[in-house]
Specification:
Layout (H helix, E strand, L loop, with lengths): L12 E12 L5 E12 L2 E6 L8 E6 L2 E13 L2 E8 L14 E3 L1 H15 L7
Antiparallel strand pairs: 1-2, 1-4, 1-7, 2-3, 3-6, 4-5, 5-6
């Protein structure tokens, strides 16, 4: 079994939102599809699509509130579709102020909040 190494320096935020994707295929035809946004960071996204795309394919990702351009870094089939890692083009970065996906979850904040609740519930430690 092989595992992907996460090379992103930024935190990935889990999310869910539908986006429109456009690209040019190997034969030069313009293509488009709807994709599910799975996660997002400052420098890239993970998209779930029904169609596999070759590495280095340039994508234009469009939502009513934002547009991004990037290139495919990986494309893997997992049970329900193809998952594409897309690195944003130079000068293209994501910002929550500019675009907030419909559902957005910062796992770091969730873990921190959970740890705080657990610390409040824990019995005080006694030194013997």
């Amino acid at each position: 079994m092989s595992y992907m190494v996460d090379r992103r320096a930024e935190t990935r935020m889990l999310c869910a939102d539908l986006v429109k994707v456009r690209w040019t295929d190997r034969s030069g035809r313009n293509r488009k599809a709807v994709a599910n946004l799975e996660d997002i960071s400052l420098s890239g996204v993970c998209l779930q699509m029904d169609t596999p795309l070759p590495i280095d394919t340039t994508l234009h990702i469009h939502h009513d509130k934002a547009e991004f351009e990037g290139s495919v870094r990986y494309c893997l089939f997992r049970d329900i579709g193809y998952f594409l890692g897309v690195q944003f083009a130079p000068g293209c970065r994501w910002s929550q102020r500019r675009y907030r996906p419909q559902h957005l979850l910062d796992l770091r904040k969730l873990v921190q909040a959970s740890a705080k609740r657990a610390a409040k519930k824990a019995p005080p430690m006694t030194i013997q």
